[in-house]
UniProtKB/TrEMBL annotation, chains A, B:
InterPro entries attached to this UniProt entry: EF-hand-dom_pair, EF_Hand_1_Ca_BS, EF_hand_dom, S100/CaBP7/8-like_CS, S100_Ca-bd_sub
Pfam families: S_100
Organism: Oryzias melastigma (Marine medaka)
PROSITE patterns named in the record: EF_HAND_1, EF_HAND_2, S100_CABP
Matching SMART domains: EFh (SM00054), S_100 (SM01394)
Descriptive protein name: Protein S100
GO molecular function, one term: calcium-dependent protein binding
GO CC annotations on file: cytoplasm
Amino acid sequence: MPSNLESAMQMLIKTFHKYSGKEGDKYTLSRGELKELLIEELGSYLGNSKDNEAVEKVMNDLDANNDGEVDFTEFIILMGALTVACNDFFLDKPKEDSAAKTD
Amino acid sequence: MPSNLESAMQMLIKTFHKYSGKEGDKYTLSRGELKELLIEELGSYLGNSKDNEAVEKVMNDLDANNDGEVDFTEFIILMGALTVACNDFFLDKPKEDSAAKTD
């Protein structure tokens, strides 16, 4: 049985390919595939991902080599940044709550 | 219910804290905690992680700010690199197999 970290890695790989394989280059996310992934997989994190402008911004931020596609490495950079942001959010919450109590 | 990507992110966060919380600074991995994580969670990827030298190398590679600890961001960089390596391995495999057949 895979460990937790192995499962997390497999899930990242499988989910990327679930969307990247839909059209065009099987190993990269087109704009449409990225939008679908953002809405279906990260809707609760990137609330306004239905908004084309938000998707355009994420696309431009991710598309480091400017080929109009998001490859796996660029995708992992997004996921890493989101995961660090989540971790920081859950760590800061108790600190903020206790600070609020002492005010 | 969390999506696949949300589950993967949560698993990365929970697993890091499972080990980082054991001794010293609750939010960073000491050498001992890192070794335990590598053996228990990534043993099949980093086969020789029982070998102190291998752990030392991973520690030095990860410990970007040289504080002798691995923080969450440094951990995510490791996980990102491993996940990209895994993805490349599984993508190259079919290409190698088909190349081997044509030799």
